[in-house]
Specification:
The chain is an alpha/beta fold and 246 residues long. It is built from 9 helices and 12 strands. The chain has a 5-stranded mixed β-sheet, sandwiched between helices. It has a 5-stranded mixed β-sheet with strand order 9-8-10-7-11, with helices on both faces. A two-stranded antiparallel sheet has the order 2-3.
Length: 246
């Protein structure tokens, strides 16, 4: 009896693992994102970037099929909230968004920074200092949502564009004084758009970005993906991806 008991429990455990593996493998998910370099972006007809590379490897390890499309942020975010089997990334995890999704990550860090044009005499040491100037953000972005909650006024000291590329151009043209965006995103866009160097003046929030899964996803799948992502970090895979995009 002792031997049979010893054999029975491992077999049941293995059976559960097989069932979970089959279930996860049968899941096909839709990844949607925006152009937000260097985390997710289109290059030569392919969607690449830090977060993209990490997610592709993660789903490959779990044998999960997926499709991948790039849209404007507002559309991707809406799809992630409303459409079953859909994942929107890279998404800043905020208290306001917490219950709207199930979360895998963090994938990357992305502090929020006020940038100015190189040579600017502006000095910023607080949000109060920044309120004196015209700040560029964009619609639906967590950075802009944060500033609105911090009493920045839309159409007055907070000018909202449809995407961050427009803010780089507006800063260069002198149509805004400051640009509120991600610590890595701002310099990347300025470089690729050749708008001139931007200078970080003040980090007003430290943040991390995740893959936001539609809330109807199985909690067991979310746990499995987070566990595998932790292994990828310990193995050094994630750091290699970061180095690739420096």
């Amino acid at each position: 009896m002792k031997i049979s008991k010893f054999v029975f429990y491992p077999l049941s455990f293995l059976l559960a693992l097989v069932i979970n593996s089959v279930t996860f493998a049968a899941t096909k998910i839709k990844l949607v994102t925006e152009n937000y370099p260097p985390f997710n972006m289109e290059e030569s007809g392919k969607i690449v970037g830090m977060s993209t590379d990490i997610l592709k490897e993660l789903l490959k390890r779990e044998n999960i099929e997926y499709s991948l499309e790039l849209f404007p942020w507002a559309r991707s975010y809406k799809m992630g909230m409303e459409e079953k089997d859909t994942v929107v990334y890279s998404t800043t995890r905020t208290p306001e968004r917490e219950a709207l999704f199930k979360w895998v990550g963090p994938l990357v860090s992305n502090d929020w920074v006020f940038f100015a044009k190189k040579g600017s005499s502006i000095k910023i040491n607080s949000l109060d200092d920044a309120r004196k100037y015209s700040v560029g953000g964009y619609n639906g972005d967590a950075t802009s949502e944060f500033l609105l909650k911090e009493k920045f006024e839309k159409g007055k000291n907070l000018q909202l564009a449809t995407n961050d590329k427009q803010n780089a151009l507006k800063l260069e043209a002198g149509r805004i004084d400051l640009w509120a965006t991600g610590s890595q995103l701002g310099p990347w866009i300025a470089k690729t758009e050749k708008t001139g160097k931007v200078v970080p003046l003040y980090t007003f929030k430290k943040t991390e970005m995740y893959a936001a899964f539609n809330k109807d996803f199985d909690a067991a799948l979310i746990k499995k993906l987070n566990d595998t992502l932790d292994k990828m970090k310990k193995e050094g895979f994630v750091n290699k991806v970061y180095d690739k995009y420096k």
